Amino acid sequence: MATRRNVVLHKLWICFITFLYFSTESLSQTDNYIVHMDLSVMPKLFADQHHWYLSTLASVSDVAGMSTASAATFTASSKLLYSYTHVVNGFSASLTPSELEALKKSPGYVSSIKDLPVKHDTTHSLEYLGLTPQSPVWKASNYGDGIIIGLVDTGVWPESESYSDHGMPEIPETWRGECEGGAQFNSSMCNKKLIGARFFNKGLIAKQPNVTISMNSTRDTEGHGTHTSSTAAGNYVEGASYFGYAKGTASGVAPRAHVAMYKALWDEGSYTTDIIAAIDQAISDGVDVLSISLGLDGVPLNEDPIALASFAAMEKNIFVSTSAGNEGPFRETLHNGIPWVLTVAAGTLDREFGAVLTLGNGISIAGSSFYLGSSSFSEVPIVFKDGCHIMSDLIKIGPKIVVCEGAFDSNDLSDQVENVSSANVTAGVFITNFTDTEGFIGNKFPVVIVSLRDGKTITDYIKNSNSPQASAEFRKTNLGIKPAPRVTSYSSRGPSASCPLVLKPDIMAPGSLILAAWPQNIAVDSNNSLPLFSNFNILSGTSMACPHAAGVAALLRKAHPDWSPAAIRSAMVTTADTMDNSMEPIKDIGFGNRINPASPLDMGAGQVNPNNALDPGLIYDVNSTDYVRLLCATNFTEKQIQVITGSSSTDCSNLSNDLNYPSFIAYFNEKNSSSNLTIVREFHRTVTNVGEGICSYTASVTPMSGLKVNVMPDKLEFKTKYEKLSYKLTIEGPALLDKTVTFGYLEWADSGGKHVVRSPIAATSLSPELS
């Protein structure tokens, strides 16, 4: 009896101490921290690192000094968010300032990072990339058969037809993941397509203790994760469309690959502790490719959760595709400028959504439109108002089609569209030579944008008719639009502030107006104040480009299982397309009508070409030791490098700022130098022959204004497959370049004419720095 009484009193004492702790804790604000520990210091008495972390937390807890060991351990368990296994040697915990200071004095402590909020940044896109039943890369990879693509995102809508497992192969024996149950989600919802589903929100809950999670499971309540995962690996869905736009058969880039979803982005908020835990779990589960359409701006590599997590993934031979961000068109806005990942920019398709305007004289005019209301209207009076800036005039017009002219930049066009939309007229037709119109056509009001030439046809008809009228048909989809692709205005530009020595972005993939799966209970838009629902949605962003590239990587991983992540990236970069479908250099539409050729800081090497990447001829390979040598050559301390690599020791005896990367970036930005001073930037590269056994390659370089580029040797003679040969590239120019960016390409062409291995070269006067 006394024993039972003592147990009860002991438990009451623990409860009292815990209550006292949490009551006083509110006076000392807690925050989440990612804590890096040196595993070599862990005492042998601990069975594993998780128990060591708990003991460490118990020893620094504010309640430790006034409680029993049991109470301190209980408190430590409540404060520990995650014990990480692969991504970080350490854990995340909710700590008061005094606890954090005490932790810094604990044995094994390396460093800590405060938890940060994170933001997340297709029927025809596959055909546009050359993926058809006859394409070599689909045949060689059997459509990505057996490859597992993991995504860290907002979750998944398992009922979508894109996750049907019809025709899917069996789940790979290497798979160690699971389908985690939760709110409106049970394990039976997974199948041979959707093989894994987990969710992570301990960091979010610790940050917001009073938060109510609306859907505490992997079920998608936002739509982003369903869209990205079906873009990468969705199964075939016939008859897909978005209210009649983009009709066709939808599928992912790798339709026979498996999907594993790791939900770490929530309607209520998203934090780095949860994202690291998600990637850590994906590594343990055995994914082959990771697609990460999110990022943080303005953080160094040693504080960037994507950089830390992806380094661990790379060491496990996992390919990581990331989005460049949506902060374009300005320079130095890119995130995920990480040397060991693929950083993907967004481009347009050769597809346009539109309407046909038929004038009273029978002439039909095609224009851009993305209206979701009535599919047509007939014989409506049409009037011309020149510049539609005066609202008092517009509201007098009534139920007519209003034609506006004179919008030659985005601000003016935006003002005119807004004015006409608010004027209670039937529709608006806008005559402009402004080319970046995607943001104006997706309107709840019927907007049609036409060219200057077609606009003149319309205005001439109105001026010469006594009672001009027109009819309109919407929901048109036009293919083969030229020029395409083009770099979208929103796609973030390089150079990378977090690692300026490596050219970023790496590649461009379709990101504009992409059709993919969508949760059927989440409204895609509204019409007349009523919500509209669809099983597919059309979205734009580098978030849409990233899973396209991840899908391509899955195909290459299947076709070349012995290739490293760097080899796959190299194949994609060196075989990318630099010309558009009109056989002109790919253009950048980032600055309105000032359309210039896109530079490597805008699009990387160019538009990804999956079929060419299957057989690149030569590859530039890199391993973890090479990345460490690069980090050593920068301003990172040994402790910061240890945080990135997870290693307890760092060998910087052979440092090098010259990574064996398939691209080049040179800085000529010495602003205080003499005007006639000339400097030379030197690069060393080693290529591996993955083509024919005996072959030779000859180098050529496109001219770069104001610079001299030299390659030595300019011929490489390979005797066997997998032989490695090296060369040196030098760029000589003024200490301060007179242009912001000058660029060209190094091409290695084989004597048989089968392979052209192309690397972008960018020279810039910019001086990227983290803000």
Automatic annotation (TrEMBL):
InterPro entries in the cross-refs: Peptidase_S8/S53_dom, Peptidase_S8/S53_dom_sf, Peptidase_S8_Ser-AS, Peptidase_S8_subtilisin-rel, Peptidases_S8_3, S8pro/Inhibitor_I9, S8pro/Inhibitor_I9_sf, SBT
Entry-linked Gene3D superfamilies: 2.60.40.2310, 3.50.30.30, Peptidase S8 propeptide/proteinase inhibitor I9, Peptidase S8/S53 domain
CDD domains attached to this UniProt entry: PA_subtilisin_like, Peptidases_S8_3
Domain Inhibitor I9: start-end pairs: 32-119
Domain Peptidase S8/S53: 144-579
A GO molecular-function annotation: serine-type endopeptidase activity
Main subcellular location of this protein, as a coarse class: secreted
Domain (Subtilisin-like protease fibronectin type-III): residue spans on this chain: 658-762
Species per Swiss-Prot/TrEMBL record: Salix koriyanagi
Keywords: Glycoprotein, Hydrolase, Protease, Secreted, Serine protease, Signal
GO CC annotations, alphabetized: extracellular region
GO biological process: proteolysis; response to symbiotic bacterium
SUPFAM superfamilies registered for this protein in UniProt: Subtilisin-like
The protein's name: PROPROTEIN CONVERTASE SUBTILISIN/KEXIN
Residues at the active site: D153, H224, S543
Record-linked PANTHER family: PROPROTEIN CONVERTASE SUBTILISIN/KEXIN
